[in-house]
Design goal:
Number of helices: 7
CATH topology: Rossmann fold
Largest sheet: 6 strands, parallel
Structural class: alpha/beta
Radius of gyration: 17 Å
CATH architecture: 3-Layer(aba) Sandwich
Strand content: 15-25%
Number of domains: 1
Order of helices and strands: EHEHHEEHHEEEHEHE
CATH class: Alpha Beta
């Protein structure tokens, strides 16, 4: 595991953008595509805007990018809570990724149907590859959740399915999410974690007893890939 601490969200996002652009360039030297799963939440917005501007807008070969999502709220695309909408608003509307290579988790159909459809797309891409995604970007909530793996939910322990939908009573909504099974098979996984609100959970996830029912982010353990944590000083406050 690689842990890097930055002074604030801006510095962290600049560092993550540089690292991601380098990883894309290195991967495309030996492969004809780069597969990335984007994260929802507030932290990636700054990263997206940096990637969508010079120099990275020009440096990255967007024509070879294949875009996925880690999870989605079952709300219409027009809803500001929709993770895909956020990614379009901050990144995808500004870079030339071919539309056929952007795979949103659909919310115009039932959530279970959407998860089944998404899993089929994932199998088309990854059934014959040694790893799944080239890169999965993750966030972590104040409660230690990542993706839509929330404390005390059965989905945390899902071993077979790659994508799943379930109803989350605490939010009174359905969520669609990748599972640890497909994510842990990625070549690279990177958590972006900022703010004092994350400090307690980050300490428990990295240093505490193994209890994924309380801190589901502990379930993210790459099988053969790399795990990176980009955190700011506020989130790292309890790690001293």
């Amino acid at each position: 595991m690689d842990l890097q601490v930055y002074s604030d969200a801006q510095q962290l996002s600049q560092a993550a953008a540089k690292w991601i652009a380098g990883l894309i360039a290195e991967t495309l030297k030996v492969r004809d595509r780069f597969t990335i799963a984007l994260s929802g939440g507030s932290t990636p917005k700054l990263l997206h805007k940096i990637l969508a501007a010079a120099p990275y807008k020009e440096q990255i070969d967007w024509s070879k990018m294949h875009i996925f999502w880690g999870d989605e709220r079952a709300v219409p695309f027009e809803d500001d809570r929709n993770n895909a909408k956020m990614a379009y608003d901050t990144l995808l509307n500004f870079v030339p990724v071919p539309p056929s290579q952007i795979h949103v988790m659909r919310t115009d159909i039932g959530p279970e149907e959407s998860a089944i459809e998404y899993e089929k797309i994932l199998h088309q891409y990854f059934d014959k590859t040694s790893n799944s995604f080239d890169l999965v970007l993750l966030g972590m909530g104040d409660d230690g959740h990542t993706l839509s793996l929330f404390p005390g939910t059965a989905i945390v322990h899902e071993e077979k399915a790659w994508a799943k939908a379930f109803f989350l009573p605490a939010q009174d909504m359905f969520r669609i999410t990748l599972t640890k099974t497909i994510v842990n098979n990625a070549a690279h996984i990177a958590f972006l974690t900022t703010g004092t609100g994350k400090a307690h959970a980050l300490k428990e996830v990295l240093k505490g007893a193994y209890n994924p029912d309380l801190y589901p982010s502990q379930e993210i353990k790459p099988v053969s890939g790399e795990l990176h944590w980009f955190v700011d000083e506020a989130a790292a406050a309890n790690l001293k």
